[in-house]
Design a protein that fits this description.
single chain, 73 residues, mainly alpha, 68% helix
Length: 73
């Protein structure tokens, strides 16, 4: 990190990027990912939530939505 550059430590995006960059430099990309996983476990039951959210979604409905989006462009 260059000492002559002012850093806005109140900006979470900047701090997050600098932290990820530092971890990647020291641990490599795989080590950085394992480190981050230790602190970002998430919450809830993703599988149950996914099943509930996607209960009515079919391949046909996805294709219909995609066609509609393409027609609007």
């Amino acid at each position: 990190m260059n000492g002559s550059i002012a850093i806005d430590f109140r900006n979470p995006k900047i701090i997050r990027k600098m932290g990820i960059d530092a971890l990647t430099k020291e641990l490599g990309p795989v080590g950085m990912a394992y480190f981050i996983q230790q602190y970002d476990r998430g919450e809830g039951d993703y599988t149950a939530e996914r099943e509930e959210l996607l209960a009515d979604v079919t391949m046909e409905s996805l294709m219909d939505e995609l066609k509609a989006i393409r027609q609007r462009k």
